[in-house]
Amino acid sequence: MNGTLNKVLLIGHLGDEIKMHYFEGGNCIGRFPLATNEVYINKTTGEKITSTEWHNIVVRNKAAEICEKYLSKGDKIYIEGRIKSRQWQAEDGSTKYTTEIQVTEFTFLTTKKDSEATKQNFKTDVSESPKNTNFDSTNDGSHNDDLPF
């Protein structure tokens, strides 16, 4: 190890749909904003304050295609990556700067597609007939699995 580390861990919600850019040779890049929230209590007023930080997320190639296929605005995702700053010349000649998170690993935590499917299944189950919510099939107290808790 060279004595430095550039690693970012984030859990947040997509602020918009993924914007894809395709290049010659089959490579692609996906970009989206990610919102992380910090909630705290103002000690003087007792008011609950929510502070949102926005992160520019960049995913590449197959990872970008997977994110585009399964994620949409509002979905929750865990991201590992590194901070990358870059600059470019705008059309008006000014120099622009941005800081991005280059994704190396990610895990979908919740997607709207999943939650809509779950809601639909729940509604179907509830409307068909009442279900027994007790998951212990013996239900007589005699079941002992030797667990200490």
Shape: globular
In sequence order, what are the helices and strands, one letter per element?
EEEEHEEH
Number of helical stretches of at least 4 residues: 2
Strand order of the largest sheet: 1-3-4-6-5
- Spans of at least 5 consecutive residues whose pLDDT stays below 50 are 122-145
Strand content: over 45%
Distance between the termini: 43 Å
Rounded radius of gyration (Å): 23 Å
Short account of what is shown:
This protein is an alpha+beta fold and 149 residues long. It has helices at residues 61-70, 112-128, and strands spanning 8-14, 19-22, 28-41, 48-60, 76-89, 95-110. The chain is globular, with a radius of gyration of 23 Å.
How would you explain this protein's 3D organization?
Helices cover 18% and strands 46% of the residues. Strands 1-3-4-6-5 form a five-stranded mixed barrel. The chain has 149 residues and is of the alpha+beta class. The two termini are 43 Å apart. It is built from two helices and six strands; from the N terminus they run ββββαββα.
Topology:
Blueprint: E1 8-14, E2 19-22, E3 28-41, E4 48-60, H1 61-70, E5 76-89, E6 95-110, H2 112-128
Parallel strand pairs: 4-6
Antiparallel strand pairs: 1-3, 1-5, 2-3, 3-4, 5-6
Tags for this model:
single chain; 149 residues; five-stranded mixed β-barrel; 2 helices; alpha+beta; 6 strands; 18% helix
